[in-house]
Amino acid sequence: MEKIASFTIDHIRLKPGVYVSRQDKVGLEVITTFDLRITSPNDEPVMNTAEVHTIEHLGATFLRNHRDYGEKTIYFGPMGCRTGFYLLLAGEYCSKDIVPLITEMFEFIRDYRGEVPGASARDCGNYLDMNLGMANFLADKYLEQVLYPIDDSRLIYPE
C-alpha distances in angstroms, 74 versus 33, 44, 55, 56, 70? Predict the structure, then answer.
């Protein structure tokens, strides 16, 4: 069986960043899948499920309510390895195109206080598994170490 594209990326050399994982044509539309890598694979500890779950709820809420990208947002959710998130947008984009959006989203997550949207038994299948404090912390770390000083080494997958 042939390896899927995401398993061909050198995860030993991969740094946290914003990467185009793939682009797929669906009918007449292009769907761009982004790899939002938060932690360094196989180097740093992975994120715990509680903060991943919190970032997922806050990020999805932010994106689906965004004035420019709300209707273009197809999906936002965690990677199984817990080192980042996938974002699928309708349209053909490069990584640099969405850095302002991702920065805005992680500033929202960093600064968010209060009840996490959808964190109730009625709205979520595992609503008790949330950690807003760690989500705030990880968002701040991603902003300070990756998004604010971003350059091509964190926008293009390593060869």
Answer: 9, 29, 17, 14, 9
Predicted confidence at residue 7, as pLDDT, reads 83
* Residue pair 134/54 in contact by the 8 Å Cβ criterion: yes
Residue 5 has pLDDT above 80, yes or no: no
Both structure tokens of 138:
């990880």
In order of 49, 75, 76, 96, 101, the CA distances from 143 in angstroms are: 20, 21, 18, 15, 12
3-class secondary structure per residue, the chain:
CCCCHHHHCCCCCCCCEEEEEEEEEECCEEEEEEEEECCCCCCCCCCCHHHHHHHHHHHHHHHHCCCCCHHHEEEEEECCCCCEEEEEEECCCCHHHHHHHHHHHHHHHHHCCCCCCCCCCCCCCCCCCCCHHHHHHHHHHHHHHHHCCCCHHHCCCCC
Q: Render pLDDT for 96-127 as a digit per residue (tens, 0 to 9).
A: 999 999 999 999 999 999 999 999 999 999 99
pLDDT of residue 6: 79
Q: How far apart are CA 96 and CA 134, in angstroms?
A: 27
The number of angstroms, rounded, from the C-alpha of 19 to the middle of its chain's C-alpha atoms is 10
